[in-house]
Amino acid sequence: MFKKILVANRGEIALRVIRACRELDIKSVAVYSEADEKSLHLKLADERICIGPAMSAASYLNIENIINAAEKVGAAAVHPGYGYLAEKKELAEACENRGIVFIGPTPENLKLAGDKITAKRIMAEAVVAVIESSPDGITNLDKALGICKKIGYPVMIKASGGGGGRGIRICADEEMLREDFAIAKAEAGAAFGNEELYIEKSIENPRHIEFQILADRSGNIAHLGERECTIQRRYQKLIEESPSPGLTATLREAMGETAIRAATAVKYFNAGTVEFLLDSDDNFYFMEINARIQVEHPVTELTTGIDLVKEQIRLSAGGMLDYSYDDLNRRGWAIECRINAEDPERNFLPSPGTVEAYTPPGGFGVRLDTHLYQGYELPIYYDSLIAKLISFDLTRQGAIAIMKRALSEFVISPLKTTIPLYRRIMDDPSFRKGDFDTGFIHKFVAEEDEFD
Amino acid sequence: MANKRVEVRAPMSGVFFRKPSPDAAAYVEIGDMVKKKQVLGLLETMKVYQKIKCPANGEIVAILPENESPLKDDDLIFVIEAV
């Protein structure tokens, strides 16, 4: 096992990894930017090292600074968390070249995860259903019209160079495609420096279901069940749960098998997530593999009893995966709310500032992953996720009741947060029935809202 | 009629950008004539970008913060002489 791990991240996920290290008796090293000198991860780690100025590009995204820091402190391995450099093959390669273990997938896995067109081709060859799409980047309207005629409307136009849900348009018919194509092209050029567009069939009102996978170096792969991630705003997840209220046991088995087939086809290593879209007729389509630990991993941990971060570390140290889904001691239901410092009443505008009053929730069935403390000033430089509140109970109804109670206890003042929005959602009859699709959030938030 | 001095202040704390990308030209320079609703700069707060728009027709007479500098809520950014 490693003696020392450098945690190349900040915020709640840095704490998550540092805590796992502490329990495994591994020394942890926190990295921090000059804007993070008062962050909690510095206090909880065994050692700390500054990796540069406030702007992420100069610190948390600076591969050379991170590798140098790892060498300086004598870390045997680097855990990248999520976001930042977690899925950059360059960090994984740099680690390999300098004799440091990257706790995550192989550089080849990361390369493929970033290349959606090749990944889809490999998946189609592995007999995994993929959403019909244009074979390559398109800039010509006539070509686009021909492809759409073949795959059928509605279609989704995406910027080939885009990501994170940005720059997506849905066209209901040919007329709309004619109108939107040139605009989408110009927008893609302006936003990503690449005018190429990518077209795929739009699945109407789908659910977003993903499967957690774990894999060791000798090719043993298991899935750990699904996460329901349908409740999103602008393609950003807000609430996740496990299991999904939308899956039957048969469907779960079929999707789980497909997830393993997908991971096998790319020789996947370590923890990852296979994302699917599920339509209203229970057809499911491969979307992508997220080659990292995900924000929403706690709902899987609570329902399987597996600590995914410890498993990432163990597998990276050469450990074997000797269990499958059926061996897991699965039980209960877990729900996570991602609490952001954003004002849901003012179009989710960020709400920076100092936490003056802070009362975290607690009690039976509550897990809180957060880096907040009273007196903490949120840096303006980093994203607005400030806490993940997770509830667990034997039934979904029980987990909702605990979440509702925990949300009502949670005080983070004077910042605006998404807590009031989640309190309303917990009372929503469709949510309580488990009956929702990706359009659900529009019951609470206007669709066309845009701040300028 | 005397020209009126109009101030443009930060709507919240954030990092101020004078240009849309590192290699691009600045949105505006001192002495530029600007129109109401024209974009003068960007403010990035917790990974979200807001456009800073011009409140009046006029001339830019002062640009206080440097590019990429952190601003506090209500910090003065531009001074415009309205026409």
Please specify the SSE layout and strand pairing.
The complex is a heterodimer of chains A (452) and B (83).
Chain A: E1 4-7, H1 11-23, E2 27-33, H2 40-44, E3 47-52, H3 63-73, E4 77-79, H4 89-97, E5 101-102, H5 107-113, H6 116-125, H7 141-151, E6 155-159, E7 169-171, H8 174-192, E8 197-201, E9 207-215, E10 221-233, E11 236-242, H9 249-265, E12 272-278, E13 284-290, H10 297-304, H11 308-316, E14 333-340, E15 342-343, E16 349-350, E17 353-354, E18 357-359, E19 366-370, E20 377-378, E21 385-393, H12 396-409, E22 411-413, H13 419-426, H14 429-433
Parallel strand pairs in A: 1-2, 1-4, 2-3, 4-5
Antiparallel strand pairs in A: 6-7, 6-8, 9-10, 9-12, 10-11, 11-14, 12-13, 14-21, 15-16, 17-20, 18-22, 19-21
Chain B: E1 4-9, E2 14-17, E3 33-34, E4 39-45, E5 48-53, E6 58-63, E7 69-71, E8 76-82
Antiparallel strand pairs in B: 1-8, 2-4, 2-7, 3-6, 4-5, 6-8
Short description:
The complex is a heterodimer of chains A (452) and B (83). With 452 residues, chain A is of the alpha+beta class.
Describe this structure in words.
The complex is a heterodimer of chains A (452) and B (83). Chain A has 452 residues and is of the alpha+beta class. Chain A has three domains: 100 residues, Rossmann fold (3-Layer(aba) Sandwich); 70 residues, ATP-grasp fold, A domain (Dna Ligase, domain 1); 237 residues, 2-Layer Sandwich (D-amino Acid Aminotransferase, Chain A, domain 1). Helix content of chain A is 32%, strand content 25%. Chain A is built from 14 helices and 22 strands. In chain A, the strands form six sheets. An eight-stranded antiparallel β-sheet of chain A has the order 13-12-9-10-11-14-21-19. A five-stranded parallel β-sheet of chain A has the order 3-2-1-4-5. A three-stranded antiparallel β-sheet of chain A has the order 7-6-8, with helices on one face. In chain A, a hairpin with a 5-residue loop joins strand 15 and strand 16. In chain A, helix 4 packs antiparallel against helix 5, helix 7 crosses helix 8 and helix 12 runs antiparallel to helix 13. Chain A is globular and about 60 Å long. The model of chain A has no long low-confidence stretch (mean pLDDT 94). The mean pLDDT of chain B is 94. Chain B contains no helices and eight strands. In chain B, a hairpin with a 2-residue loop joins strand 4 and strand 5. With 83 residues, chain B is mainly β. Chain B has a single domain, classed as OB fold (Dihydrolipoamide Acetyltransferase, E2P), CATH 2.40.50. A four-stranded antiparallel β-sheet of chain B has the order 1-8-6-3, with no helix packed on it. Chain B has a four-stranded antiparallel β-sheet with strand order 5-4-2-7, with no helix packed on it. At the A-B interface, strand 16 of A face strand 5 of B.
